[in-house]
Design goal:
20 strands, eight-stranded parallel β-barrel, alpha/beta
């Protein structure tokens, strides 16, 4: 069995236990759905959208199948209050015990904690997050203080999902309906539900791909979209901010609590994730230990690219490889171009990279889906090739299985500008590459979904990485991040 099947099997046994704990409970007959505006969750989400604010659902979870123990000793009340004070619109509490270390008692305590305070703009809502198969779980969620529940399309037939949704709404609970691929969305698209959760994590393999939200959100048919899983910091947020109305974030905040202070009209969560926009900077071709350590000590770039291509003149020396092992960085990117799949696996086995950059056409979509690390997919664009052909063959086959794209020139690493005409409405977040330097950074403003730049030759002087150029580019982008310049 895969992980999801194991969870469902355990949940089936748990449901029998819940009926024993609630001996007088009888599942109700599903009723007509009440008006959406009568459900507090839907109303709050619409109000946030109308005011231009992001709807953050922060999550309390002690562990997960993908991470193991995240924070075994976490103080639930302190964490819930920290989330609320940082501006959370809702707080998710895991009630699954064996796989996530949660309980209904956690949900009850979270409710009591929030009820103990006065909240000027309304108490944050509580999401009971679990693998719901039966109405008795909804009954237990309501009894322990939940305002909304999660229903997962991967484990429910459309008919069962609809029945459970109506059961929940008849008790005043909102419903977040979750899918993680196009097939799941297609099978429930005919149902009437106002909020679609898109899980960037495959529940069968627990692999994460942020661009899944951007792909599926285009098919949401007017529903509000909540992006779930995989957002650890402001870098990841930029890859999703154009398409999602809200964000369900757990692991990143369980490890690093947000600041609760409000500044310049922004909540702690809004500042934490830089919700108004941030230009990203990938400094590529770093190949000396001295430069590696300098960029770790002085975070001028959002991503540090280490090139393993057999075709590249920018491969790291042995001292740099040793530095990567001895002092790893979570934002380092292993760059592969015309490498074999075996070479890629060997590098990932030796070095602690959490993100790779691949080139479309070098590897298959099936290979990408086997990787457990994050994937940035680079695409070569040539003037003589139609954009429609590039999109169909080099972009769309990978779109739901990567975090974001890089649009590069026809000869990667050459410093040549992109000659192809990238459409202004290119639909997915991307970094602009190909001959970018400190004199033409403003070019990225031409595309709404451009979220930053990837620079190699433009950070060099006489063929060597120039730290002063990196500092100037980083400074320019930081000034541009005053939000007035962000499209």
């Amino acid at each position: 069995m895969n992980i999801l099947q194991e969870i469902v099997a355990a949940k089936t046994l748990e449901i029998s236990s819940l009926y024993a704990q609630h001996p007088t409970y009888t599942p109700p007959e599903p009723t007509e759905c009440p008006p959406a505006e009568s459900i507090l969750f839907y109303r709050r989400l619409n109000e946030a959208h109308a005011s231009g604010r992001r709807f953050f659902i922060t999550e309390f979870k002690r562990k997960s199948p993908s991470e193991g123990w995240i924070n075994r000793e976490a103080d639930l009340s302190a964490q819930v209050l920290a989330y609320a004070e940082a501006g959370a619109s809702a707080i998710s509490v895991l009630t699954d015990a064996p796989f996530f270390g949660g309980s209904y008692e956690d949900l009850k305590r979270a409710h009591q904690t929030l009820q103990s305070r006065e909240w000027p703009v309304g108490r944050p809502l509580l999401l009971q997050k679990d693998f719901i198969l039966d109405p008795v779980q909804i009954h237990a969620a309501k009894k322990n203080g939940a305002d909304l529940i999660l229903l997962i399309a991967a484990i429910l037939s459309p008919e069962r999902l609809d029945d459970l949704k109506r059961t929940a709404e008849s008790q005043g609970l909102g419903v977040l309906v979750e899918v993680h691929d196009d097939n799941e969305l297609e099978k429930i698209a005919h149902l009437d539900f106002p909020v679609l959760g898109i899980n960037n994590r495959d529940l069968k393999t627990f692999r994460t791909a942020l661009n899944r939200t951007n792909v599926l959100a285009a098919r949401a048919k007017g529903r509000r979209v909540i992006a779930e899983s995989g957002v650890l910091d402001e870098r990841h947020f930029q890859m999703l901010r154009h398409r999602a109305d809200g964000f369900l974030i757990g692991t990143g905040l369980m490890k690093n609590k947000p600041d609760k202070r409000q500044e310049r009209g922004q909540t702690g969560l809004e500042r934490h994730f830089q919700t108004q926009g941030k230009w990203l900077f990938k400094a590529c071709g770093i190949r000396t230990a001295e430069t590696w350590h300098h960029l770790l000590d002085n975070p001028l770039a959002d991503f540090i690219g280490i090139n393993f291509s057999p075709k590249s003149k920018r491969r790291p020396d042995d001292h740099t490889l040793a530095a990567i092992k001895n002092r790893p960085d979570p934002h380092a990117v292993a760059v592969f171009y015309q490498n074999t799949e075996t070479e890629i696996w060997e590098v990932l086995a030796q070095f602690p990279f959490k993100t790779v950059q691949l080139y479309a056409g070098d590897v298959t979509p099936e290979f990408v889906r086997q990787l457990k690390v994050r994937v940035i997919m680079a695409v070569k664009t040539a003037a003589e090739q139609s954009w429609e052909n590039t999109f169909e063959h080099s972009i769309q086959p990978y779109a739901a299985d990567v975090d974001c794209f890089i649009l590069d020139g026809a000869r990667p690493g050459s410093g040549e500008r992109i000659a192809a005409q990238i459409p202004e409405d290119f639909p997915y977040p991307f970094l602009l590459a190909g001959g970018i330097h400190e004199g033409n950074l403003a070019d990225m403003r031409a595309w709404r979904h451009c979220i930053g730049v990837d620079i190699a030759s433009g950070i060099e002087t006489d063929g060597e990485v120039d730290l002063q150029k990196i500092a100037r580019i980083g400074g320019w982008l930081k000034k541009a991040n005053d939000y007035s310049s962000v499209p």
